[in-house]
Write a structure and sequence with these properties.
The chain is α/β, with parallel strands linked by helices and about 180 residues long.
Length: about 180
């Protein structure tokens, strides 16, 4: 009987303390999110200054909804041979020279997805770090971006990229066929 009573008291204590914590959090000027990615992997990456990667499905959805700016970190010579439809090119080796022109119209709170090609390609991570250094807070890396995009048969294009600034004016939610 005493053990049952102690268990009930502990459960009530946990209930009241939990409600108190949630209430205090709600009153904060900047409440902490109750649901977030608190995984050890993400926390370690952020503490080392690394940019978190974006899962393929999230990147695809962001592209379909025109909710992100895709930026190719590869050299311009590779970009013109093929890139994600609507992507901008900001080669890491020309970051300082080309950044003002490429990012002139992109707000700092906009989702930016950097990519390059190949499992071992670090250009997108370097580009993402440079963008964070310029104040862009929502930068993610699509690992093996160009190869993964092509393997999924998502829309691509060639040339220097002549898209107007901002999100593309097309509805990408309709099925598309690649131009290559």
């Amino acid at each position: 009987m005493r053990i049952g009573r102690a268990v009930i008291q502990v459960m009530l204590l946990i209930f009241f303390v939990g409600n108190l914590a949630i209430s205090v959090n709600a009153w904060r000027s900047k409440p902490l999110p109750l649901v977030a990615d608190w995984s050890a992997q993400k926390n370690q990456a952020l503490s080392r200054g690394e940019t978190p990667t974006i899962p393929w499905e999230e990147a695809k959805e962001a592209w379909l909804m025109a909710a992100a700016v895709f930026v190719d970190a590869r050299p311009s010579e590779q970009f013109v041979l093929g890139h994600i439809e609507g992507a901008r090119n900001l080669p890491w080796e020309a970051f300082d020279q080309k950044f003002p022109q490429v990012f002139a119209d992109i707000p700092k709170d906009r989702l930016v997805i950097a990519y390059c090609d190949g499992e071992g390609c670090n250009l997108s991570h370097e580009l993402a770090a440079g963008l964070r250094g310029k104040g862009y807070s929502h930068v993610r890396v699509l690992a093996n971006g160009w190869s993964a995009w092509q393997m999924a048969k998502m829309p691509t294009e060639t040339g220097p990229g002549t898209h107007p600034p901002g999100p593309p004016p097309v509805d990408r939610s309709a099925p598309q066929t690649p131009d290559r």
